[in-house]
Amino acid sequence: MSKGQPISPALMATKRAETAADHRPPGAPEPAVPAAPSVMGPGNTVAPVEMTGSQAVVRALEELGVTDVFGIPGGAILPTYDPLMDTERINHILVRHEQGAGHAAEGYALASGRVGVCIATSGPGATNLVTAIADAHMDSIPVVAITGQVSSKVIGSDAFQEADIVGMTMPITKHSYLVTRAQDIPRVLAEAFHLASTGRPGPVLVDIAKDAQQDTMTFSWPPRMELPGYRPVTRGHAKQVREAARLIAAAQRPVLYVGGGTVRAEAAAELRELAELTGAPVVTTLTALGVFPESHEQHLGMPGMHGTVPAVYALQQADLLVTLGARFDDRVTGHLPTFAPTAKVIHADIDPAEISKNRTADVPIVGDVKEIIPDLVEAVRQETERAGTPDLSAWWSTLSSLQATYPLGHTRPADGLGSPQHVIERLSALTGPEAVYVAGVGQHQMWSAHFVDYERPRQWLNSAGLGTMGFAVPAAMGAKVSQPDRVVWAIDGDGCFQMTNQELATCVINRIPIKVAVINNSSLGMVRQWQTLFYDGRYSNTDLNTGHDTVRVPDFVKLAEAYGCAALRCERDEDVDDVIRRALEIDDRPVVIDFVVSADAMVWPMVPAGVSNSQIQIARNMTPDWDEED
Question: Which residues cross the membrane (predicted)?
Answer without folding.
Answer: none
